[in-house]
């Protein structure tokens, strides 16, 4: 039965203190837990969660609990009549982390024991309410053999170390901050440590420790530097400081997600820790920096203030994503970061909002909460915070944040608590708020991407442009009626010489609104720069002429709107080509505009040009196609890239000369030059330029991973000798580094070869393929689904193969399998043949035995 937001009630006990003793033995682990419990209110049975636990003993206030005084069934331990006064419950359980392939709870990854408890993994370690609103002070004693587990880590401070007999030892950890079970962590194994020191603004000395496998020490500098930058940024921008004497980060190879913010003991997917310029791309370095920041920022937005229940997940995730986005914007280019985030939102979150798994930022119910770690909760959630920031401005928003922290520090809060704090803090200056906060809260409950339709009238005599705006949100599964939302809409007029007048912020909160903008009387209609900085996460319906888009592309002072104008033209070109009717006028105009940009470039700041030239993502094109024809879109993209390479050959070659000088610069310097180089190689190679292919091939053996991977991306879609040579050289060079080899697996799996399916099968049998590592599974199976001609083969063979693979993964790792099942989410948008083939694959998956995680996703796909 689903869990419902409306059914929330507090747990009927308080649990102020927990003592855990974890005894690590060669074949199993014994977990003894002592819970200090205090009944709060009426006489109720005590119910604790527990999954796959073998009970050794249960004691209440020191006495064994008799067999008929408790029951353990359906993952629930019930003590029928607990005392009405405070009492101590001690349980001892045996667990088997050595055969736990789910990567939840305590599990083994490459000889290392580590935990993942969010969202509901702690119940696989011992009996516990395992809900985020039960906060306790934890003491954890870990005992193991020193030979196999010299390092024993948990949350908080190490308060004692013991030398025991038989080569065993123990370490006891105490965390002074009350926390829920999902933030518990434990790591035991053989690890190398890299140490550093950070002194906080108020003078606390914090020992920073990064723990990696032997041999990986040289690749830890970037992560450590990123951590220090994150700590300094949160002090400067949010006045939030770290609160303990040590901060640990552990890199593990087998991990379902990116990373986890456990109090003072972050656990990271090793691909998000280990990196330098030779082994990681510029984009990966920036991503690592931002994930390190994200987990660090959780210490306040997540740990000190946590979630009342899992419906509030976006309280911590949306806010923390907003914080990490701001961090990256401050450290690098704010314009480029905003553009990349919008591109990602449109291609993942808008797609989710438009399909069968659409759900609000605050869902009303769920079956498996793991299925809701989505781009809606994270990225759309961050957009809601960003809109509050836009509506209030930096100063008022920050006063709201300070109010939130002072009201809710040390508690488990709700999204309503958050919005109310922001609003109350902002209003301390006595000024009107400027928007209806009750209406704003609708954003949390309403799924779907709003459509903003804009019509306009230009009065040349007065020089006034009048806008008529309407908003509506299309129905989503289980939510047919939609209400108007609060939309902050930033607009300006753009003429031949740039922006005319000031930008305006229209706050729309009903179905309709109108606005008049002052332009130059007597002149031609100016271009409309709408939704500047992407001030609200909506789809815009507005008729814009080619001339207007070109004017914005050339003269708008908002980099997002400039980029958006170019994207609009590129979308037109690609959709027209995919429908078999290329639009020669738009193509010629766009090429001309790009040529001007390329000619004007003389080095430096190349990242802005690189994002401007990047083509729109597949998902956003598919959203505009009916029915969706993936191979036609794929072919259109390849042909257009070749056309760009032919028409712009001269400026692209000049560009390569300019950029070469930036190749050796260390990240973040030089990334613009490297991005543009990759783009030029792709376009020129697609146009048949042998010299570009050669340059690319050489880069695969060079010192920059960014260039090597750009080279592989340029060559990979083509049936040329250099492609196979390049892939082979890359494999030979990196075969002993699993984190890097995953990129090779992904490229191999997505190479559009005629025998693509057999090759993907062979990759799954490859000696270097690790079927228990979600990274490797995502590389091969994710690569395969990006292999458009093979995955979308009209006979349905690609879909059937994928369904079989998902079923196989589901038997070992439901969290990873249920995420993969979402590749079928757009089945109803394809033409009849693909539609029925994909539907059959979904039914085939549904007919087998599925975990509740995957069953929930499959059920959503079938409604
Ligand atoms: N809280 C983590 C983060 O975003 C994600 C952990 C998700 N884990 C899961 N099993 N769903 O930083
Ligand atoms: Zn997070």
Automatic annotation (TrEMBL):
<keyword id="KW-0482">Metalloprotease</keyword>
<dbReference type="Pfam" id="PF17900">
    <property type="entry name" value="Peptidase_M1_N"/>
</dbReference>
<dbReference type="Pfam" id="PF17432">
    <property type="entry name" value="DUF3458_C"/>
</dbReference>
<keyword id="KW-0645">Protease</keyword>
<keyword id="KW-0862">Zinc</keyword>
<dbReference type="GO" id="GO:0008237">
    <property type="term" value="F:metallopeptidase activity"/>
</dbReference>
<feature type="domain" description="Peptidase M1 membrane alanine aminopeptidase">
    <location>
        <begin position="223"/>
        <end position="424"/>
    </location>
</feature>
<keyword id="KW-0479">Metal-binding</keyword>
<dbReference type="InterPro" id="IPR035414">
    <property type="entry name" value="Peptidase_M1_pepN_Ig-like"/>
</dbReference>
<dbReference type="InterPro" id="IPR012779">
    <property type="entry name" value="Peptidase_M1_pepN"/>
</dbReference>
<dbReference type="InterPro" id="IPR042097">
    <property type="entry name" value="Aminopeptidase_N-like_N_sf"/>
</dbReference>
<feature type="domain" description="Peptidase M1 alanyl aminopeptidase C-terminal">
    <location>
        <begin position="548"/>
        <end position="859"/>
    </location>
</feature>
<dbReference type="InterPro" id="IPR037144">
    <property type="entry name" value="Peptidase_M1_pepN_C_sf"/>
</dbReference>
<feature type="domain" description="Peptidase M1 alanyl aminopeptidase Ig-like fold">
    <location>
        <begin position="448"/>
        <end position="541"/>
    </location>
</feature>
<dbReference type="Pfam" id="PF11940">
    <property type="entry name" value="DUF3458"/>
</dbReference>
<dbReference type="InterPro" id="IPR027268">
    <property type="entry name" value="Peptidase_M4/M1_CTD_sf"/>
</dbReference>
<protein>
    <recommendedName>
        <fullName>Aminopeptidase N</fullName>
        <ecNumber>3.4.11.2</ecNumber>
    </recommendedName>
</protein>
<keyword id="KW-0378">Hydrolase</keyword>
<dbReference type="GO" id="GO:0016285">
    <property type="term" value="F:alanyl aminopeptidase activity"/>
</dbReference>
<dbReference type="InterPro" id="IPR014782">
    <property type="entry name" value="Peptidase_M1_dom"/>
</dbReference>
<comment type="similarity">
    <text>Belongs to the peptidase M1 family.</text>
</comment>
<dbReference type="InterPro" id="IPR045357">
    <property type="entry name" value="Aminopeptidase_N-like_N"/>
</dbReference>
<dbReference type="GO" id="GO:0008270">
    <property type="term" value="F:zinc ion binding"/>
</dbReference>
<dbReference type="GO" id="GO:0006508">
    <property type="term" value="P:proteolysis"/>
</dbReference>
<dbReference type="Pfam" id="PF01433">
    <property type="entry name" value="Peptidase_M1"/>
</dbReference>
<dbReference type="InterPro" id="IPR038438">
    <property type="entry name" value="PepN_Ig-like_sf"/>
</dbReference>
<dbReference type="InterPro" id="IPR024601">
    <property type="entry name" value="Peptidase_M1_pepN_C"/>
</dbReference>
<keyword id="KW-0031">Aminopeptidase</keyword>
<dbReference type="InterPro" id="IPR001930">
    <property type="entry name" value="Peptidase_M1"/>
</dbReference>
<feature type="domain" description="Aminopeptidase N-like N-terminal">
    <location>
        <begin position="100"/>
        <end position="183"/>
    </location>
</feature>
């Amino acid at each position: 039965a689903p869990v419902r937001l409306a059914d929330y009630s507090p747990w009927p006990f308080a649990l102020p203190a927990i003592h855990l003793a974890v005894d690590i033995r060669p074949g199993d682990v014994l977990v003894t837990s002592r819970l200090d419990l205090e009944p709060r209110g009426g006489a109720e049975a005590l119910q604790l969660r527990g999954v796959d636990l073998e009970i050794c003993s249960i004691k209440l206030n020191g006495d064994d609990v008799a067999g008929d005084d408790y029951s353990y069934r359906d993952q629930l331990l019930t003590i029928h009549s607990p005392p009405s006064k405070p009492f101590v419950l001690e349980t001892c359980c045996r667990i088997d982390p050595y055969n736990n392939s789910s990567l939840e709870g305590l599990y083994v990854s490459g000889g290392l024991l580590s935990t993942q408890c969010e969202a509901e993994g702690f119940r696989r370690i011992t009996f516990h309410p395992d809900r985020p609103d039960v906060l306790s002070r934890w003491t954890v004693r870990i005992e193991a053999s020193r030979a196999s587990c010299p390092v024993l880590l948990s949350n908080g401070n190490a308060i004692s170390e013991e030398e025991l007999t038989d080569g065993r030892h123990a370490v006891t950890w105490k965390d002074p901050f009350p926390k829920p079970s999902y933030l518990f962590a434990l790591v035991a194994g053989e690890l190398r440590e890299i140490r550093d020191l950070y002194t906080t603004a108020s003078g606390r000395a914090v020992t920073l420790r990064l723990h990696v496998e032997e041999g990986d020490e040289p690749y830890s500098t970037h992560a450590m530097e990123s951590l220090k930058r994150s700590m300094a940024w949160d002090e400067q921008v949010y006045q939030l400081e770290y609160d303990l004497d040590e901060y640990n980060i552990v890199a593990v190879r087998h991990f379902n997600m990116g990373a986890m913010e456990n109090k003072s003991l972050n656990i990271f997917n090793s691909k998000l820790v280990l990196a330098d310029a030779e082994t990681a791309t510029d984009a990966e370095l920036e991503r690592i920096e931002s994930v390190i920041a994200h987990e660090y920022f959780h210490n306040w937005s997540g740990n000190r203030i946590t979630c009342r229940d899992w419906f509030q997940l976006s309280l911590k995730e949306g806010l923390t994503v907003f914080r990490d986005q701001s961090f990256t914007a401050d450290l690098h280019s704010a314009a480029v970061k905003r553009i990349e985030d919008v591109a990602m939102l449109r291609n993942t979150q808008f797609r989710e909002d438009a399909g069968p798994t659409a759900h609000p930022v605050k869902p009303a119910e769920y079956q498996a909460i793991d299925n809701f770690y989505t781009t809606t909760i994270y990225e759309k959630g961050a957009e809601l915070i960003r809109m509050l920031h836009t509506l209030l401005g930096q100063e008022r928003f920050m006063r709201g944040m300070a109010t939130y922290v002072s009201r809710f520090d040390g508690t488990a809060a709700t999204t309503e608590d958050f919005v109310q704090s922001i609003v109350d803090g902002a209003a301390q200056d006595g000024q009107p708020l400027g928007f209806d906060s009750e209406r704003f809260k609708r954003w949390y409950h309403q799924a779907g991407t709003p459509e903003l339709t804009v019509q306009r009238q230009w009065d040349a005599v007065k020089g006034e442009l009048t806008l008529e705006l309407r908003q509506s949100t299309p129905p989503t599964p289980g939510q047919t009626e939609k209400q108007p939302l609060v939309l902050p809409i930033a607009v300006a007029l753009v003429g031949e010489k740039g922006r005319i007048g000031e930008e305006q912020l229209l706050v729309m909160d009903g179905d309709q609104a109108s606005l008049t903008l002052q332009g130059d009387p007597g002149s031609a209609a100016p271009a409309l720069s709408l939704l500047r900085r992407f001030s609200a996460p909506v789809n815009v319906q507005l008729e814009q002429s080619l001339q207007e888009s070109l004017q914005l592309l050339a003269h708008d002072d908002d980099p997002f709107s400039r980029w958006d104008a170019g994207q609009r033209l590129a979308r037109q070109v690609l959709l027209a080509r995919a429908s078999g009717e290329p639009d020669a006028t738009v193509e010629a105009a766009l090429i001309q505009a790009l040529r001007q940009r390329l000619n004007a470039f003389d080095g430096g700041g190349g990242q802005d040009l690189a994002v401007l030239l990047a083509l729109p993502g597949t998902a956003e094109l598919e959203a505009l196609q009916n029915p969706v024809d993936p191979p036609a879109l794929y072919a259109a993209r390849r042909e257009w890239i070749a056309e760009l390479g032919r028409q712009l050959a001269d400026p692209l070659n000049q560009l390569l000369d300019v950029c070469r000088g930036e190749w050796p610069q260390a990240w973040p310097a030089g990334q613009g030059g490297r991005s543009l180089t990759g783009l030029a190689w792709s376009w020129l190679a697609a146009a048949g330029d042998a010299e570009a292919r050669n340059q690319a091939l050489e880069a695969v053996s060079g010192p920059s991973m960014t260039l090597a991977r750009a080279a592989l991306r340029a060559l990979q879609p083509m049936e040329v000798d250099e492609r196979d040579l390049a892939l082979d050289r890359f494999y030979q060079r990196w075969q002993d580094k699993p984190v890097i080899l995953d990129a090779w697996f992904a490229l191999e799996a997505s190479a559009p070869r005629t025998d693509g399916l057999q090759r993907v099968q062979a990759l799954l049998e490859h000696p270097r393929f690790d079927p228990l590592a979600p990274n490797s599974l995502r590389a091969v199976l994710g690569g395969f689904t990006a292999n458009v001609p093979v995955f979308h083969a009209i006979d349905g063979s690609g879909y059937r193969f994928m369904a079989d693979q998902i079923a196989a993964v589901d038997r070992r790792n439901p969290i990873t399998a249920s995420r993969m099942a979402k590749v079928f989410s757009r089945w109803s948008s394809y033409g009849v043949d693909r539609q029925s083939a994909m539907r059959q694959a979904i039914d085939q998956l549904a007919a087998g035995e599925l975990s509740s995680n995957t069953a929930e996703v499959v059920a959503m796909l079938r409604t």
